[in-house]
Amino acid sequence: MELTVAKKDLLKIVTRMQGVAERKSTMPVLANVLLAADGNNALRLAATDLYLSLMGRIPAEITKPGSVAVSAKDLFERVKMMPDGPVVISSQDNATTTIKASGTARRYTLRGMPGDDFPPLPQPAEGSPTLALDVDVLSELIAKTHFSISTDETRAHLNSALFEWDGDVVRMVTTDGHRLSKVDVKVSGRQASATMLIPLKAIQELRRLCDEMLSDGGAVAADGERKKPELLITQSGASAFFQGAGTTFSVKLVDAQFPPYSQVIPQASEKVVRAPRSALADALKAVSVAASERTGGVKLSLSKGSMRITSESPESGDGFDEIPVEFAGPNMSIGFNAKYFLDVLAAISDEEVAIGLSGELDPAVLRPAGATTSSERQFLSVVMPMRI
Amino acid sequence: MRQILHIDMDAFFASVEQRDDPSLRGRPIVVGGAARRGVVAAASYEARVFGVRSAMPMAEALRRCRDLVVVPPRGRRYTEVSERVFDVFHEYTPLVEGLSLDEAFLDVTASRRLFGDGAAIARRIKEGVLEATGLTASAGVAPCKFAAKIASDLDKPNGLTVVPSDVAGFLAPLPIERMWGIGPKTAPTLRRLGYRTLGDLAKADPDALERALGSWGPEVRELARGNDPRDVVPDREAKSVGAEATYDVDLTTREEIARTLLAHASRVAERLTAATMAAGAVMVKLKLHDFTILTRRMTLPSPANDTRTLHDACLVLLDRFPLARARVRLTGVSAQDLGPAEAVQPALFRDEREDKRRGVESVLLRAKERYGDKPITFASLLEGALPRADRGAAAPGPRGASAPPPSRRR
User: Fold this and answer.
1) Is residue B9 located within the same domain as residue B158?
2) Residue B330 resides in a domain
3) What count of other Cβ atoms lies within 10 Å of the Cβ of residue A127?
4) What mean pLDDT is reported for chain B?
5) Nearest beta carbon to residue B348 from set A154, A180, A297
6) How much is the pLDDT for B375?
7) Is the domain of B7 the same as that of B141?
8) Which has the higher per-residue pLDDT, A40 or B29?
9) Exposure winner among A48, A195, A202, B251, fewest CB in 10 A?
10) CATH code of the domain containing B157
11) CATH, residue B370
12) Cβ–Cβ of A259/B345 closer than 8 Å?
């Protein structure tokens, strides 16, 4: 195999490939990235950990077709050191691979594996339904919910995000068992029906993909207008495929039952507090410095027009702050893990937040109370209180 | 009624030296500083026959016993052995309060459900310590710290003294010198005032005692009456509960290893449940055939104390070990970052699976309480399913499956 590619293109795609390649696997080939010169004027790259797979193409000038698999991490580190400009990649039959900066003396030799040893990647069955979704919508769904995905790998149904396409609404819901986030966005004119449970690791990868596509901006259409970047989503068998920016990212969906989330979202709250978002975040951050490390708990004491935030810990003493809020009473006190509130406050941009409360041990509902809430977009977060 | 153990190693430093160097066995030895000028840090029982005692000036010890062998202290070694001793204590309860390298209080009140009464636990610990270190210890079992400490000293070495529920009656005939803090200075004063036994102190007029002993007086009287409410304050910063075993034949498959982890997780879960504690983190330890020790640890998303959750975490951790072609001689599970079991952060959803797991755990525990150790267990831990553990197993009790089938040694 011999081909020439631009360093910039190669580095960008190898950076993402090495995020998917699995270094710790018992199958050494999974630490590799596949380089295949089997098409016209394109180098095909692929990486997989058998759950996530990433496949992409970059423009290449192919002198001799062939394929090889080399360590994703080694390739990344070496490509990074190349000067800008064309890079020549060539491999021998014994999979020894040379990377050379064209027109300079800089060169690396890597011991690879034959490309045929690389596992075949999943392909969507023909005729599988495909939906087109604006990248900024998917990005918003993830940004507002990713923090409440459980990190407990033993509970697959919580270690993932629920993605639903329900008529002309796309929705993402996540929960770690103590809090829940849900966001609905209306995508007018795009009717569909789909439900998938996307594992945390894939959500992180999708987030990177969205960021990259958004920072690149959309493709320029024929009339010179910039088109909003879109992702194509295909569900086929146990996998979902996300296609965009010249790459296809596939993920094995979680086969489990997401908890019945609508049951735990309170329909109504007895009291509603309206608080300035950034002042509340600021005060919570300040007081939580003194909260018990084990629990991270702070107490919110509400009285007419004011919220007092206190923390008490046998190890680290007390913390106190007070902010003005809109609250009519009657007085109440309730404990929360400050981090659960801070995650929500960081995910929204409105100046005000509405906190719906009922009893001391009943879940609280946080909603943005400003411009971003409309019939088009709805976000809420349910947080279980703490016994303090 | 609380059940407190006081465990005191017999002539600890000297016994370690005699165990490590067979030529010292049976001879009067002391551990201590440079020949004539130091003091005796520890004296073997053979040396004590000559009246040699710890804290005695070395010159005097040598005068009393002309054949005395003086061994320079090896602090690191004593710490090492001490850690193994304390590991045995921790097999039975997380509530261990060390007083020094060689003695500790243990609160085993909650452990009785699993291991039998205080005396039975003390016997098992003595056996465990002997097995792990080759050293003997003396134990006192009592409803309070004060009486337990006195009891452990009554039948040294290798003794076991159980204080009956009438603590005051047990203490009454003992001479006042048995009490902590009543030494060569205070004792003569008290004797002059007519107090000869702890019983005399128990009956004393509180004001008179206060005049004689100052503010300490009233406390002395209460202690002599067997009233000592002080709790055992566990001193391990990172408290943990663990179980491990070494196997007869090296384990080579993931399934075998996973099964041993289930046995350990189940044991750890029982002990956590009995102590109403929950673990914030789980650690798996593997020792390979070449004695390399590998560990992997993870923080649990929320504290847990049931077998399933602990074992699930163990399986996740197991996949993080490089196991290809590994031969494993020892496996272990330890629960770490312990805290009270009651959840401070209630859950949003009722987790029926978790409720069930908790239910299973308490049924298992109650069954063991009523019928002993064997009646119910996880199917994959039934006899024959588990590799045989015996190469100096550190796990307490019936050591893995009881009465395992004979296994072939390689």
Assistant:
1) yes
2) yes
3) 7
4) 83
5) A180
6) 56
7) yes
8) B29
9) A195
10) 3.30.70.270
11) 3.30.1490.100
12) no
Instruction: Using CA coordinates, name the residue in chain A closest to B353.
Output: A155
A-contacting residues of B 57-86, CB under 8 Å? none
- Output the pLDDT for position A40: 81
Q: Is B9 on the interface with A (CB under 8 A)?
A: no
The kind and range of the H/E element at B201 are helix B198-203
Residues of B in contact with A294 (CB under 8 A): 280, 339
Residue B343, pLDDT > 70, answer no
Number of separate domains in chain B: 3
Residues B150 and B48 in one domain: yes
Contact A175 B349 (CB under 8 A): yes
What pLDDT score does A315 carry? 64
ipTM for the predicted complex: 0.70
Could you give the CA distance from residue A108 to residue A91 in angstroms, rounded to a whole number?
Answer: 12
Domain span at residue B184 reads 169-224
My answer on whether B122 and B192 are in the same domain is no
Q: Is 50 exceeded by the pLDDT of residue B392?
A: no
For residue A119, give the DSSP letter: P
- Cβ distance B346 to A387 less than 8 Å, yes or no, reads yes
The answer to whether B270 is a known catalytic residue is no
pLDDT for the residue B373: 58
A384 contacts on B by Cβ (under 8 Å): 345-348
Q: Chain B residues with CB inside 8 Å of A180's CB? A: 348
- Out of B301, B312, B313, the one facing A150 most closely (by C-beta) is B301
Please report, for the domain that includes residue B202, its CATH number: 1.10.150.20
pLDDT in tens, A190-246: 888 999 999 999 999 899 889 888 887 655 555 656 678 899 999 998 999 999 878
pLDDT at A292 over 80: no
Q: Are residues B20 and B161 in the same domain?
A: yes
Give the Cα separation of B183 and B161 in Å (integer).
23
Assess whether B89 and B160 both reside in one domain.
Answer: yes
- Residue A373 has what pLDDT? 61
Identified catalytic residue from B103, B244, B256, B361: B103
| Straight-line distance from the first to the last Cα atom of chain A, in angstroms, rounded to the nearest whole number | 66
Chain segment A94-103, per-residue pLDDT in tens: 999 999 998 8
Measured between beta carbons, which residues in chain A are less than 8 angstroms from residue B302? 177-178
pLDDT band at residue B239 under the 50/70/90 scheme: low
pLDDT band, very low/low/confident/very high, at B371 (cuts 50, 70, 90)? low
Q: By three-state DSSP, how is residue B35 classified?
A: coil
* Strand, helix or coil for residue A113: strand
Position with higher pLDDT, B39 vs B407? B39
Interval A153-185: pLDDT, tens: 878 899 999 999 999 999 999 999 899 999 999
**What's the rounded Cα separation, in Å, for the pair B232 and B220?**
19
Residue B6 included in any domain: yes
In a domain, residue B119? The reply is: yes
- CA distance readout (Å), B25 to A115, A128, B14, B34: 68, 82, 10, 21
Secondary-structure breakdown of chain A: helix, strand, coil percentages, each rounded to the nearest 5:
20, 45, 35
Asked which of B165, B196, B215 is the last residue of a domain, the reply is: B165
Q: State yes or no: pLDDT of A293 exceeds 50.
A: yes
CA distances from B57 to B48, B54, B177, B198 (A): 14, 9, 22, 30
**A365 CB within 8 Å of a chain B CB:** no
**B118-133 vs B75-92: helix axis angle to the nearest 10?**
140
Does B184 lie in the same domain as B253?
A: no
B212 and B136 inside one domain? no
In the prediction, which pLDDT does B34 show?
59
Q: Is residue B116 part of a domain?
A: yes
